[in-house]
């Protein structure tokens, strides 16, 4: 693993995650109360023994840069690093990244250094836990030029993925982007008996989807990118590689979620509150790393809390009811507040900080007394007054707006720094 370098793609504009990505990149979106999405791929790399990590960024990257700088500092003896490679003008290229493959092409100088034999390419907006050592073993055993991670999926999921066709040895022979017709599906259907031989219970999952996780021989990647002008790995580089190179499948059968939409983000967060969550944050051997903040314990006084997660530094007053929700760092909930089926991201600073009292309405940071919030995502640093009701009324469309609030996928989103006066109702 010492000869592996990892490139984590910071993603594009993230329009499907708006307004959460209005002033931050997708990998910088908060996750599980105290993490950010970028912490997932970086933690997977560290747990797998990969110590040389580059994060390629382009849009709204200031908060992401700050988080990485404050979170990941290796000792001088390991030779490890997590560094930002931002889009920039050079003598070779004057424009921004035009796609995933183009982003890597513009940074080839960093993977052409001595001691790099393999290049791992990851997305910065997925939730999963994977040992990349196992993927490298698959790659080496097969003598592959490229290895791609695949996940078994059901028929109803295929229209959202690139589906892989492969032979009995796992060598990839074809790739079909988002098949929809029965004729297309027939071409890429996997024999359940083959999955059983791999130790995977198909459970009706007869297709293998690309997870967008690639492992290249370094020289193969350099050649593929320097001899073509392809912009995208999934749509162009990968299909071409199948025709000209040995591309191997690495099967994965754990939890994996692409956090690409408001609905997916909302569900992935609330799934963590389950008694037996599909993705566990407390695996001692493979922890999720993040920025150390040195916050005090949360203070909870006479609240009723069920099936929820509460992050550090919170202040929860008497008679508060929290059910099936996630409460982020430094959140302040006044008396008789009700939070149901919601994700609160918390705040960047305590209410006593001078930056928390700057709104002209004089509404203090946090959730005011008597406020009710149901099925919502509340971004950071909001100032919500007393007796506010934020609840989707019957018949409201799944995508719409009301005042400063927006609705996406049937979920109310309260943007960062929103101020709502006393008595405001959705």
Give the mean pLDDT. Answer: 91
What structural class do helix, strand and pairing data support?
Answer: alpha/beta
State the helical fraction. Answer: 10-25%
Instruction: Please give the radius of gyration in angstroms.
Output: 23 Å
Could you please say which CATH topology of the largest domain applies here? Spore Coat Polysaccharide Biosynthesis Protein SpsA, Chain A
CA distance, first residue to last residue: 52 Å
Give an overview in words.
The structure is a single chain. The protein has 426 residues and is an alpha/beta fold. The protein has two domains: 4-271, Spore Coat Polysaccharide Biosynthesis Protein SpsA, Chain A, CATH 3.90.550; 299-420, 3 Solenoid (UDP N-Acetylglucosamine Acyltransferase, domain 1). Helix content is 19%, strand content 27%. It has nine helices and 31 strands. It has helices spanning 39-48, 62-71, 100-105, 132-142, 182-188, 192-197, 218-226, 233-244, 262-271; strands spanning 4-9, 30-31, 35-36, 52-57, 81-86, 118-123, 126-128, 146-153, 162-166, 172-177, 207-217, 247-251, 256-258, 299-300, 304-306, 309-310, 315-316, 321-323, 326-327, 332-333, 338-340, 343-344, 366-367, 372-374, 376-378, 383-384, 389-390, 400-402, 405-408, 411-414, 419-420. The strands form seven sheets. Strands 1, 4, 5, 6, 8, 9, 10, 11 and 12 form a nine-stranded mixed sheet that branches. It has a seven-stranded mixed sheet with strand order 16-19-22-25-30-29-28. Strands 15-18-21-24-27 form a five-stranded parallel sheet, with no helix packed on it. 43% of the residues are buried. The mean pLDDT is 91.
